[in-house]
Amino acid sequence: MFIILMGVSGSGKTTVGKLMAKTLAWRFYEGDDFHPTANVEKMRRGEALTDEDRRPWLEALRAVIKAALEDDENSILACSALKRSYRTSLRVSEHVIFIHLAARPDVIQRRLQQRKEHFMNPSLIESQFATLETPPTGLTLDASLPPAVLVQQIRHTLKI
Fold it and tell me: Cα–chain-centroid distance for residue 46?
């Protein structure tokens, strides 16, 4: 199984993903680690990424997902996956499950202002919400809940 925790920056993808991976003894991948340097610098400057900017990033993530599934490695990936087309690219098999961590913009803005040492410029949150194509189906959870509660909800729903 390959779980992708998706949502805007500051929704808790990494926090929940690391906790869940530790709890289950699964592999955790941080999607931000796969961005080319040019993308990181662009976001740091407060410039939104284009689909063309994201293409090599999505290709790298797709390769990681394929390799993990080929190795029967249960894994979790923290990845914004804001657009349906991005999720389509990442859904390499029926074993890829998307979980949307959703929260109101004011909650996310507060989190981003408190966050230290992350390249994502908080000024980009409006563009992230504008880009977000909410998944019509699948599991959507309230990202304002404590991470441990979210992990419990995911495990209960997926029976893992």
Answer: 19
| Residue 31, helix vs strand vs coil | helix
Contact 39, 49 (CB under 8 A): yes
64-81 pLDDT, tens digit per residue, is: 999 999 999 999 999 999
Q: Distance (Å, rounded) from C-alpha 101 to C-alpha 131?
A: 15
What are the DSSP E strand ranges found in 71-135?
A: 75-78, 96-102
Model's pTM, two decimal places?
0.92
Q: Among 3.90.1150.10, 3.40.50.300, 3.40.1190.20, 3.40.50.720, what is the CATH number of 2-158?
A: 3.40.50.300
Extract long-range pairs of 56-63: CB within 8 Å, 24+ residues apart: 57/31, 58/86, 58/89, 58/90, 60/34, 61/29, 61/31, 61/34, 61/90, 62/89, 62/90, 62/92
